[in-house]
Amino acid sequence: MYRTHTCGELKITDVNKEVTLAGWVQTIRKFGSITFIDLRDRYGITQLLFNEKLTEQLDKNPLGREFVLQVSGTVSERSNKNKNIPTGDIEILISEFKVLNKSAVPPFTIQDDTDGGDDIRMKYRFLDLRRNAVKKNIELRYAVNRAARNYLHQHNFIDIETPFLIKSTPEGARDFVVPSRMNAGEFYALPQSPQTFKQLLMVSGYDRYYQIVKCFRDEDLRADRQPEFTQIDCEMAFVEQDDILQMFEGMIKFIFKEVKNIDYAAPVERMTWEDAMWNYGNDKPDIRFEMKIANLKVEGKNYFEGLNKTEFAVFNNAETIVAISVPACSDYSRKQTDELIDWVKRPQIGMGGLAFVKVNTDGSLKSSFDKFFNEQQLKELAQYCKANPGDLILILAGKEERTRKAISELRLYMGGRLGLRKPEEFKLLWVTDFPLFEYDEEGNRWVARHHPFTSPKPEDIAVMINNNPIIENADKYLEHPYSKIKANAYDMVLNGNEIGGGSIRIYQRELQEKMFAALGMSKEESQYKFGFLLGAFEYGAPPHGGIAFGFDRLCAILGGSESIRDFIAFPKNNSGRDVMIDAPSTIDEKQLEELQIKLNLK
Amino acid sequence: MYRTHTCGELKITDVNKEVTLAGWVQTIRKFGSITFIDLRDRYGITQLLFNEKLTEQLDKNPLGREFVLQVSGTVSERSNKNKNIPTGDIEILISEFKVLNKSAVPPFTIQDDTDGGDDIRMKYRFLDLRRNAVKKNIELRYAVNRAARNYLHQHNFIDIETPFLIKSTPEGARDFVVPSRMNAGEFYALPQSPQTFKQLLMVSGYDRYYQIVKCFRDEDLRADRQPEFTQIDCEMAFVEQDDILQMFEGMIKFIFKEVKNIDYAAPVERMTWEDAMWNYGNDKPDIRFEMKIANLKVEGKNYFEGLNKTEFAVFNNAETIVAISVPACSDYSRKQTDELIDWVKRPQIGMGGLAFVKVNTDGSLKSSFDKFFNEQQLKELAQYCKANPGDLILILAGKEERTRKAISELRLYMGGRLGLRKPEEFKLLWVTDFPLFEYDEEGNRWVARHHPFTSPKPEDIAVMINNNPIIENADKYLEHPYSKIKANAYDMVLNGNEIGGGSIRIYQRELQEKMFAALGMSKEESQYKFGFLLGAFEYGAPPHGGIAFGFDRLCAILGGSESIRDFIAFPKNNSGRDVMIDAPSTIDEKQLEELQIKLNLK
Description:
- Chains A, B: This is Aspartate--tRNA ligase.
- Chains A, B: GO terms for molecular function: aspartate-tRNA ligase activity; ATP binding; nucleic acid binding.
- Chains A, B: Homodimer.
- The structure is a homodimer.
- The first copy, chain A, is α+β, with helices and mostly antiparallel strands and about 600 residues long.
- The first copy, chain A, folds into four domains: about 10-100, CATH 2.40.50.140; about 135-265 and about 550-590, Bira Bifunctional Protein, Domain 2 (BirA Bifunctional Protein, domain 2, 2-Layer Sandwich), CATH 3.30.930.10; about 290-420, Gyrase A, domain 2 (2-Layer Sandwich), CATH 3.30.1360.30; about 435-485 and about 510-540, no CATH class.
- Chain A has helices at about 50-60, 120-125, 125-130, 130-155, 195-205, 240-260, 275-280, 315, 335-345, 375-385, 400-415, 460-465, 510-520, 525-535, 550-560, 590-595, and strands at about 20-30, 35-40, 45-50, 70-75, 90-100, 160, 175-180, 185-190, 210-215, 230-235, 270, 295-300, 300, 320-325, 355-360, 365, 390-400, 430, 435-440, 445-450, 490-495, 495-505, 545-550, 595-600.
- An eight-stranded mixed β-sheet of chain A has the order 6-9-10-23-22-21-18-11, sandwiched between helices. In chain A, strands 13-12-14-17-15-16 form a six-stranded antiparallel β-sheet.
- In chain A, strand 15 and strand 16 (about 365) form a beta hairpin.
- The interface between A and B is large, with 124 and 123 residues.
- Strand 24 of chain A pairs antiparallel with strand 24 (about 595-600) of chain B.
């Protein structure tokens, strides 16, 4: 036993107790002939008082920051109490101490506001993890994990482990593969998700499955992507979409309560994908604030009638014109509106410019295109945009896709500027009725928007079965009946982030075969890759569906952060490297030989 | 909503309720003009009654076993109640039914006593998982998982995920490796255990860590080994061996209580490795029964004095002579003793023969070597072996290692024959004080018996530091001081199976470097492979230790089975293949090109 108590628990009621603590030296303050040391462990910080005699000992063999100490002494009331920490009423009068281990001077300070940059903190991650700021994230992650498990357990879900060494069936993202030594020339793949296995478990009758499980994707890493990531992976049998939405909004609300002590009583809003795109330009809208898009013109069609009467070429030539009414910004200066214009012209946004209308509080209107719109026309426009006095209407015009994306970004940007995206406010949203297919221009073929196991909406099944998937005229793919098919799929959105997504699955062999064919797979290919699933569907597959939550991101958002990396104990950098252990790395020639592979470097 | 209730919950108190159920057809029994169907789901079986009219419908479109049905009807009291199932008091008078999915005739019966062989059940694992016998195993596994998590949570452990894509540092078993595309020519390795990461977490101050986590070993598969397996992986800081033993015998006892409702009140016995080998010939003795080994002669030294007086060449020439006294077998016939002789002569045991002494209940003695031992000599031998009247003393003689192993096997065999290894009796044991090193004849070097991070016993640290690890004379390695060093390591044994093992770790850089050197690693090699850990030890590493439990095996033993495969949802066969999904498999040329590797088949 190295300690009788932790550094976080001693209180005024413990005064006079003989205790032994162990932990790390946080600070050392010499004060005349005595020494104060703050000793830190996972649970807190306790002040130690080294008397004159012990201080003399320390003078001879000085301690340093991060030394590991074991100390014994008497709990004593402090004269100058520290109200900021739970142990702030007491200190320990040290009678004995032992250095359990020394420490070199850390390359950065172990404090909330550390002086260490990203790179050095990644390399010394084991020291970064000591900082309170990081520790809180890791603890929050555990709390979310625990809350999810408890909720799912209460609802009869069963955690069943699915295999990590599976079969490579690349659809979409690349697989990580693992050469097999015992079956030379063959490879396992690491799962991108346990999708097919959880469906098999439904076929097996385990009607409520879950797993908090690592998944793997060999993608070029964008910021905040990790090659290995964690999912809360769930599946249910004998359910329809509504059953799943209710079950899992319940789970997220339970997590809010357990982890953040938030009572999320309001029902979770539901929105179709079409509405989300129309009103927010985005399939994962942040609904903590309104500022919906006004669709003045879409794909050449004037929705705002005032556009029929103008000679403003920019508007007349544009495929799409969209606007947002930003509250309390009608007094923006020229400098401020110029800033916004520069913002939309940045390459990430890529617009040619920005038009605006100031809806002044006195009722007057002032626009950047007064030459082409008179007061009455502006008034009608402001009305169409549902602008209120004091609003600044921002208008973008251009190609449909880019313009819609840009107005969505601008909305988020303005929301952020105005402080409407409060990190401690949480707003959930279900987005439903996604398109089943997306058109892949390069391959002139359909790809599954969610994945190939997603069922079409019941009313669209006939459309799928009765039409040939072949796209005769690539330019007119939007006219193909497949482009109209809706998926029985849903995403859960939290504060503008997709935190989970799922679908009702196909469970009939014929429909699944039709889906594989629609995606351009030959019979042989679908049989080779997914024969086991097609086979399973012949032996009494029940209707089923499920969802997977991005666990890393969920934790990050609950922790009020944008970065998932802060919530992973040992993350990789943007090149997929673990710079602490220096992985990946070369391996022995002998290992390659045993695996019967060799390098083939370009 | 596909159902209002499950097939396991309706009782006599539900009579007259209108209900909807969904599930699988277990059996169909036509009874005159009506039909009984047993409908099965995860929760149980409910009897359905189809009236005359519906039976006519069934006649036109017959159902089959494993069809998926949705049925609605009224709960009704049964006339012939079935006391064997919880729903046996009621049946459902069906008013409506719908076939949700058909089923082909399954390749084996979905029953406890299935007619399917191993291979077919592996191929159709999704059907095998429907069988109650398998479902019970999967449910037990979840119960063990849940109990372990709850216990560890109550004791302040925190679940922290460690990475799966790490660095290859083969020591002992082979790593599975994963070629990196973004860092071509380099490889990740899949973890054989999270050992170094959990130690880093101790350095980071997370003083109680756990994880239930997949680990990977590319070994030639013996029966009941899996390339991927699951550990309950734990580590604690500021602890000594006794703290760990107490904490984790508490965990196993908690699991006994939660999962099997067993109150394991007795303290867990502790035994040194030396005692285990001496008394049981085995480092994981099954202590559900006594039958300890009598060591008559060990490595040439007579412990039983009677051996000094005999002219029995077999005994005189043997290096080691060991015996067990098997109760209530003194009346074994010639045929029975011959059977035992054959048993020890099998190649797996490899002994030349077996001597025996019958200690008859009337006090007389009869041996297989009466020519060499008179009555008095036999009496002394029986006394030395602590034999009781009615015992059959079985004696093996030969080379120390083989003979000790053989007597250990014979003891287990006789224990099994006598019904002393009761599957529902659970007996825990800690084995401690293992040798730190084993001698590797091939390499003429020391290898770590547990792993290179295990600390020597405190009293042996000086022996390790002050002696050169080089073995000058390979024949006399036992005389090298390193062969006497004991490890601060411990195994938990349950009914003769090692279910967990761990150690107090090295936490000082110098000692860890000495250990790597002792194992024949150069400075460069140890720096390349474990530099991050050596580095971490410089920044205030606390004393720490831990343990890992083989989760699959723990579940199997609790489930009363010898085979871990029965407790894994989707196991691999002895060639490391998943025969259901057919993995591993070949991958596309394009994938190989992207990874910049190629096949190099011999």
